[in-house]
């Protein structure tokens, strides 16, 4: 084992993570693993260490497709040559987030086309990962068009190429392993379902375990060779056990009783489709082979359910991933009730009577463990109900802040359920960040057409249309050198993502409980839409004397929802401060990610009685051409029309809150971007 790789057996804790990885390599048909967790929880370390435990594979020398014996790809020149096969380590291929489609699926061999004038295929990462592991770090940040390619290859086990005069297919059977931090955004449900197993990696809470992690890491960094040698025997035992389990997994049979139990569990947890039943069954068989038993029992089936079902359970974007283990145990008890646990001191002697505290046998009870003290149940004291407008009548998640002083009115109001709202879409010229909201040009979208390279333009390698370039060069004459005039580049198109800045009025004018609940419900619906469109979101609130960005730009709408849940109200209405703070958030993020276009959503009744001028702030935003919409939260028969005036100053549309979440409104609001 290389000293550059941390030993798998040296990873402290993370037992479920290690079990999931081992099950996925015992039976690769399970479909791989997605590992969720925060930074520094050994996700990448465990994945890279797994490779050293896998047996070598046999290939022809120089084979780029890792062809199996007798099943060579037609275009594989290495396998076409008759010769002895050799063994190589199981491939572990890492897919970079910034990789292009050509690098993933393969492309035309430019060198062979230019020098030899023949069409040749240059294999991509899918070919390199065949019969091995394909690892995607931060898989939730992968571009959608690459996700689509991975979905097809993972489902079919074959990579089909039809491009630039190349027409072929090659096997692409690999275990897909992805790691992600959910705070940076969620995975598309289609891709999440393709992962056979899911596991959450968390930092240990036990100080002794945490200190052992640090101790081992420091020893490894001080002397990698000696540290790896220290765990070499454990690594060999693990590798031998994995090889034995892979050899025996075909002989393990799942009984009809436990197969029916798995289907009953999947139906009870309302998972979509039948892939969950298949993957759970295969996982139970793989775990049985790993444990050295001939047929899965309750322990293997229970662990398989905990690995294969949490990410497939039907849930909303704001619901936590996971399943109720008590409910799972109840369903499994119907198949095989748990055996009653015997007392630690053995069965009770039938001749012994009830313990009345006597000492007839001379036993003073000094070796017996006294029973735990009974806790006294005090009767509940009923307190008088709070006043109708008291914060105690509100649904609270945590104590409100005291930013405006003790005299300020403080409320934390629960949001109405998220529903459907009108979709926001912005039209703009130029290239924008890839997403799923507005149609437009994207830097890494699908290639839609080729065009001549503009004067002074320096095309990226992935944008060069090789076939069109060679055709233009041949038509002009191959005797002349290739020049700028021959270059053809791809125009790429798709859907753009946005930064949605929610500027929400949290002042006393919004303090009415039903109104604020409706506002929170609409904003929560916007977060749901942002989740589906893969946007980044930021939340700015204004109240009292100023405004605050309570949520910096993030792709995790779950984090945004938690910030919204504890939103307090009260105090004066500094609308201008809220607009200025929103503009600062937009400008700061524009410097960090210039391709991601902003959309500003202002939720207000138009009133202002504190802070800087709202008109000047609106003019500054309008001059920059920031698209957006003003949602009028004013209610009642008498309306002042203040939100409409704010929208006019901003150069935006104004929509009433009740109309914005209404089915009668057109499903899309087009927002024209100024730049």
Automatic annotation (TrEMBL):
Composition bias, Low complexity: 429-447
Please note every region of biased composition (Basic and acidic residues): 452-462
Fetch the PROSITE patterns from UniProt: VWFA
Positions of the UniProt region annotated as Disordered: 336-410, 429-462
Keyword Calcium found: no
InterPro entries per record: BchD/ChlD_VWA (IPR041702), ChlI/MoxR_AAA_lid (IPR041628), Mg-chelatase_DI-like (IPR052989), Mg_chelatse_chII-like_cat_dom (IPR000523), P-loop_NTPase (IPR027417), VWF_A (IPR002035), vWFA_dom_sf (IPR036465)
Is Nucleotide-binding there in the keyword field? Answer: yes
Residue stretches making up the VWFA domain: 499-631
Q: What is this protein called?
A: Mg-protoporphyrin IX chelatase
Annotated source species: Salininema proteolyticum
Q: Top-down, what is the taxonomic lineage of the species of origin?
A: Bacteria, Bacillati, Actinomycetota, Actinomycetes, Glycomycetales
